[in-house]
Fold this sequence. Notes:
Elements: E1 3-7, E2 15-17, E3 31-39, E4 42-56, E5 61-67, E6 71-76, E7 79-83, H1 87-101, E8 107-112, H2 117-122, E9 130-135, H3 138-147, H4 152-156, E10 160-164, H5 167-173, E11 178-184, H6 200-207, E12 211-223, H7 233-241, E13 246-254, E14 259-267, H8 275-285, H9 295-301, H10 306-314, H11 332-338
Amino acid sequence: MGDISYTNGKNNGSGVHNGKGHSAGEGHRKSCWYEEEIEENLRWCFALNSILHTGVTQYQDIALLDTKPFGKALVIDGKLQSAEIDEFIYHESLVHPALLHHPNPKSIFIMGGGEGSTAREILRHQTVEKVIMCDIDEEVVNFCKSYLVVNKEAFVDPRLELIINDARAELESRKECFDVIIGDLADPIEGGPCYQLYTKTFYEYTVKPRLNQGGIFVTQAGPAGVFSHTEVFSCIYNTLRQVFKYVVPYSAHIPSYADTWGWVLSSDSPIALNAEELDLRIKQRINGENRFLDGKTFSSASTLSKAVRKSLDNETHVYTEGTARFIYGHGSACKHNQA
């Protein structure tokens, strides 16, 4: 779990709490820091201006921090989800490759996406007629509506339909199909609410049947660095290879995550636009200018390092509920059970 600590310059961590409260310890408070344990022997921390809000929902712990290096930052279950200064990298990478590779994306289904940034990027596409955002945690959605003003317009766009439900149950109950389905789910962490939505069974029997002919599925797939990609990125990629004919992994560095992050595109139709074709579709279809993604950027993002390519080629693990892999850390349910 991410920790908040206050230091007075004489010692480190005079008061350490789990995000539900804070104290200054003794003496004059010099600085306030957020610290997240990325691995057992590796922690990432940065200075805070203030703690804007903390809370606990039925499913997750949530916090909104005002950080010195990254602006406002949303933290769920002790994991940084997005930061004001660089969230555009994550959300442009998640949304635009899938929609641009589709010839005419009109209907989009978002699994998760409660903060609204994924919907914001989708709604920039002129072809889009309907977006369904399905998030299980109404408190997180309302929290983000109240505090993340950058997505205010997305939440009131008439093309957006917000549904509070489990994404699997919602997809299985619907008869209609979609041009693009986007997995903007929380990371697969032990005890978290989402790891079952990274399984082969879910992809094969829930996601794929809800795609239109030529439809595209894309999911965030966790850390994708040279050392971190074996946590879940490689097995999510290999799992999708068992379900779809064409699968494209790609990644980008996100400063506030202190790592490279990964996504995976999947379809039964070829995913093969070159940089020039992507740039043309960006110009023709997207309102406003991307800050991060263009044709050359995607070409670079989908050209993985030798080490990662070799690892993905050799990956044999298929993600199931019984053989799940998790990124480091624990979800809310797991923490509460351990308390």
